[in-house]
Structures are given as C-alpha cells and as structure tokens.
Amino acid sequence: MKIGIDKISFFVPKYYLTLEDLAVARQIDPMKYTRGLMQEKMAITPLNQDTISMAANAALNILTNEDIEKIDLVMFATETSVDHSKAAATNLISILGLKNQTRVIELKQACYAATAALNFAKGHILQNPDSKVLVVASDIARYGLKTDGEATQGAGSVAMIVSKDPKITVINQHAGFYSDDLYDFFRPSHMDYALVEGHYSNEMYKKFFNESYNDFLNKSNQTLDDLKAVTFHIPYVKIGLKTLSFLTNPDERLDLFENFKDATIYNKQIGNIYTGSLYLSLISLLEQGNLKDNEQIGLYSYGSGAIGEFFSMTTVEGYKHHLNKVHHEKMLNDRVNLSIDEYENIFNSIIKNDFIFDDEPHEEIILKQIKNYKRYYEKKNTWKCSFFILLWKRLKNLKNRVK
C-alpha cells in the first residue's frame, strides 16, 4: 500500500519585518543577515493569531467535506504550545468542524515532532486504510529583542493530509535515526524564551545529519545518486546549504544545489517556523522547483535535545496539479511590511488573559478572545454574519424608535 501526503499547504501571518531593517536598527551590517544567514524576512504574528489559529488557517486551505468525513486522527506538532495540559488538536475539532469520533493529540520534540507525526500517521493508515490523518505543525519562533537569535525568528504553520494512494508524495519505507541527550536548545517551562548554545547547536545539527544520513544509506542500500533533491529543517537557510555541501559540491551535483535554492524560497521570506520548517521547504521545492514525477526527495529532520532523522519521499504522477502555489504566493505578496517600532510594539504586547479583538479579521480564522484563560476563535464569515445581524438589529431598533 502506498501511503503519503495527499494534500499540503502552509499559512503565514499578515505581518513581516525585513532583516535589512532589523540590521540597521541593531547597528549591524545587513550582509550578516542576508548573506550570513541567507534570510530576507521574518513573519510576525499579530495579537489575534496564535499557533492554533495559524494551524486552522493552514488546514482550511486543503480540507474538504470528504476529508472531514474520513479524518479520524489529528496530530498537532508544536514546541510553542499555549497550554501545558489541553492539546491544541482539541481546539481544531470545533474550529474546523471535525468529527467527534476522532483521536486528537499534541506532540512535542523541538522541531522534530511533525516528522514523528508523519510516521504515526503512516502506521495508522496501514491499520485503517480508508481513513485519513490530519497533521499540522505550527509555531512562533521568538528569542527576544536585541538577542543573538532575533534575526532567526519567524512564525507559520503547515497542514498535511496523509492517506493511501496520495496525490503528492509517497513516504518511503526506510529512515535513518540518531538521538542523544544534550542541551543545545531548550526552554524550561517557566521561561518565555529558549536557551540556545548557538555554535554548539549548529555543530550538533551537522553531526546528527551525518549520523542519520549514513544510517539511512545502510538501511535502504541507496546512494546519493538515487536522490534528486535534499531538503532540510531550516532554522536559517545558510545552515542547510553548508550541510548539503558535506555531501557533494555544485561541480558534481549541480541539480541538488539548484533544487536546494528552490526549496528555500519560502523559508527566506518567512523565517524559522520550528516544527513546520522542513515541510515549508518541501512545499517550496514542489511548487517552485522542477522535479519530475516519480523522483525521490531526501528529507532531514532535526529536533534539539536531540534527534535527527533522514528519510525520503517520492513524487506522485501529476503531483503538480494538486499544489496551492497561486494561493501561497498571493498570501506572501499581500503581507504588510512593519517598521521597527511597529514590530517592537507587537513583540512587547503579549496578552495572556482578558483580551478581545474587535476589528474585522483579515485571515479566515482569528483568536477572538481570551477570557478566564480560555481561548475563543472565530471564522471570518462568522464575523460578517454577526456584523450584519447586529446591523439589522440596530436598524430595527431605530425604526421602532421613529414609530
């Protein structure tokens, strides 16, 4: 049975900050960010967006009534959860109108959890061939103002539907792993921002790639020649490029470097989105690249703490017809460029309780209110309906007064 990604999409919030503007404000040479990190912009979440609303918006791009009828498992991968107990996947039941006869779970292992979710989804489909699984990865990467990691922030979500006979990619059998107990990047539960050993974390990223990649080759009896592209977890683009250079060079495999460039177009525009980063890169490759049908892609997933996994997917015949390229490009182009002051005001305005957003939503789904620490979400069409009902009531009251 062939199992893999039947649909895939991403969501990014409406605001962004250019890294050139950030560099100027921090009195840093912009080349340190645009060339040193190979990043251009970072997505900024407004107050009415969180990891749950972003995940719901990404899922809305691909969900149909037929999908909802067949989905009986939802896995929500995040390392920026809004609740230590209640799984974010439970919120999606009401927001997306999913069946109550659905298993829901939240997964955490730094930036790796979405890859674990894909593996679990594949096993679920093997046991339940006629069902579908919704996998979402949603995060907000924040390191604090004027910190070393500030330029590698970002926000966004990726949604995938996993099923048999997929329309986009088949998840192949073999995977290589490597895990160890270390503290390269971590965030104790009482802290708002992660603690990062930057140089050490970069070295572990590369080490775990080598270990998991070699494990993959041993298990699959394949070589680099079998792969037409290699995608990476992208905290920033430059580290992926450096890691690819360990495998080969442009003189030997120019196609891998050209495909890497295509695979990081979206990442450059959005920044680090943690659990969704690898799959944002996959979307970029599929939509912006020139891969043919039935070609194999290598994927490297890394989660600090730490685990690395290297596995592969194969494109399905006609996969290009099932992508959301036009929607994604429009979403990126329609964003608003913030000034430094606007960015810092949003960054410093984190509200944890007793909050209501009264303006018209720009996105399909927003965080409408936090009351008694409970989160309430609203759909755009619901807002419009409520607005017209309110207007009708006011006009009716005015008419009665005139009488």
UniProtKB/TrEMBL annotation:
Residues 174-252, 261-348 form the Hydroxymethylglutaryl-coenzyme A synthase C-terminal domain. GO terms for biological process: acetyl-CoA metabolic process. One of its GO terms (molecular function) is hydroxymethylglutaryl-CoA synthase activity. Residues 2-164 form the Hydroxymethylglutaryl-coenzyme A synthase N-terminal domain. InterPro entries: HMG_CoA_synt_C_dom, HMG_CoA_synth_N, HMG_CoA_synthase_prok, Thiolase-like. It comes from the Bacteria. The active site is at E79 (proton donor/acceptor), C111 (acyl-thioester intermediate), H233 (proton donor/acceptor). It is an enzyme of class 2 (transferase). (3S)-3-hydroxy-3-methylglutaryl-CoA binds at D29, Y143, K242, N272. PANTHER family: 3-HYDROXY-3-METHYLGLUTARYL COENZYME A SYNTHASE, HYDROXYMETHYLGLUTARYL-COA SYNTHASE. Belongs to the thiolase-like superfamily. HMG-CoA synthase family. NCBIfam families: HMG-CoA-S_prok. This is Polyketide biosynthesis 3-hydroxy-3 -methylglutaryl-ACP synthase pksG. The gene is pksG.
